[in-house]
Design brief:
The protein has about 425 residues and is an alpha/beta fold. The protein is built from 19 helices and 14 strands. The protein folds into two domains: about 220 residues, Rossmann fold; about 190 residues, 3-Layer(aba) Sandwich (Rossmann fold).
Length: about 425
């Protein structure tokens, strides 16, 4: 074992007590973190006799992003078993909802050598795919040593993440050079990966542009719209993060849009109760999505306390704000809103989706606001100008169509390695 990985592995062992504390801490609000704990250390009950194609999708966003790729892999390799690994319970639950029992799913083990060795011995993948920004030195080295082709696809590397990896240049360079291939979302991502030591990086685009709005979600969207009020103006605050709901509720007091209904969908399900309490403290009339009740004329807010229905929420709204961007969380995925043909508003903090956000703004599909005051101004303007609102929605659809094609390029990489 080389020196950088020795120090890295020693650090992991020092952090072992913290890992258990972290799981217990997360389980306070999300008990699912205490389920399948042995899997996180390489102990599995799941097995298969088929050759395995393994995709690592950390959480909900990555799990949704591979939907079209999973479909094509099923069609191309019907004799193989697809295995999805996750890090979060919400990603695992979304995988089960989207792909059912045809796809096997487990947690990816923590990056201890003994755990990743057990994982590889259990599943013997014919090929592995890490999505976006998943650089685990011991896992990558074990695949390299065991001659398991491992790809980093749909790779993105924000400026913030690049600075973090650059603190450990030798470790990052060794890991990147032991990957079988790297394909980045954008030329900027490719350049940052090469600066860290990657030798050859292709540009494939972003898989999230290839997502197809599920028919059942579009139908649910119609149902939700009837519950919201077919004649009401509906503003959706999607994937909101800690502190943003307070800003949004303050903003509502300044809006002058008669009959406006605001739908708030927090990013993390463990915060549903927190936001319900916040609405109650402010004496704001609201209903929960989970109660299956129609909003009355007195209802000001719908709390979207459901998972896996974001496309339905987009289909049911008139304008969408994509959260994680008013405060410095880096933003969430705005592509789904554009794919649903809805005008999009985003805050100034979009470094996790910088390229897609900049392109959407440039194509007229989205508007970036500096703060909640500008959000108020833009909402007032859009609802006062229906033609402009409709034009932004059409621009969103055009924007998504023009950016598609990453799935085919990802499939080419996988086919090429499997054919060897």
């Amino acid at each position: 074992m080389n020196r950088p990985r020795i120090f890295y592995s020693l650090l992991l062992w020092l952090l072992l007590p913290y890992i258990f504390f972290h799981l217990l801490w997360r389980a306070r609000k999300q008990p699912e973190y205490l389920e399948h704990v042995p899997e996180r250390f390489g102990f599995y009950r799941v097995h298969t006799d088929k050759p395995v194609i393994w995709l690592h999708t950390v959480s909900v966003g990555e799990t949704r992003a591979v939907a079209t790729l999973v479909k094509k892999l099923r069609e191309t390799y019907p004799g193989h078993q697809l295995l999805l690994t996750h890090t979060t319970p919400t990603g695992r639950a979304e995988s089960e909802r989207l792909y059912g029992e045809d796809v096997r799913r487990v947690y990816l083990p923590y990056d201890y050598s003994f755990a990743v060795d057990r994982f590889l011995k259990q599943f013997r993948p014919a090929v592995g795919v890490l999505m976006e920004t998943e650089i685990w030195p011991n896992l990558i080295h074990a695949c390299h040593a065991g001659q398991v082709p491992l790809l980093l696809l749909n790779a993105r590397l924000s400026e913030k993440s690049a600075r973090r990896y650059a603190r450990y240049p030798k470790l990052a360079r060794l890991a990147l050079r032991e990957l079988s291939a790297i394909a980045a979302q954008t030329p900027v991502d490719a350049e940052r990966l090469q600066e860290l030591g990657a030798v050859e990086v292709s540009v494939m685009g972003n898989l999230k542009f290839d997502i197809e709005p599920p028919v059942e979600m579009l139908e649910l969207g119609k149902i939700l719209r009837q519950r919201f009020g077919a004649d009401r103006k509906v503003f959706l605050a999607a994937s909101t993060r800690e502190g943003e709901e307070v800003l949004l509720l303050d903003m509502l007091e300044r809006l002058d849009i008669p009959g406006l209904l605001t739908v708030i969908v927090p990013r993390h399900p463990q915060r549903f109760g927190e936001i319900a309490a916040l609405l109650g403290q402010r004496n704001i009339s609201f209903v929960r999505r989970s109660d299956e009740q129609a909003a009355t004329l007195e209802t000001r807010v719908v709390l979207g306390d459901s998972m896996g229905e974001m496309f339905a929420y987009y289909a049911a709204c008139d304008v969408a704000f994509v959260g994680g961007s008013l405060l410095p969380f880096g933003g969430q995925n705005l592509i789904e809103a554009c794919a649903a043909g809805k005008p999009v508003l985003i805050g100034p903090h979009t470094y996790n989706f910088a390229e897609a956000s900049n392109r959407a703004v440039g194509r007229g599909a989205a508007t970036s606001v500096a703060d909640s005051n500008e959000l108020v101004e833009n909402l007032q303007m859009l609802f006062a100008e229906p033609q402009r609102l409709a034009a932004m929605g059409r621009s969103g659809l055009d924007f998504v169509r023009m950016e598609q094609g990453a799935t085919e390029r990802a499939l080419e990489f996988i086919v090429r390695l499997l054919s060897k």
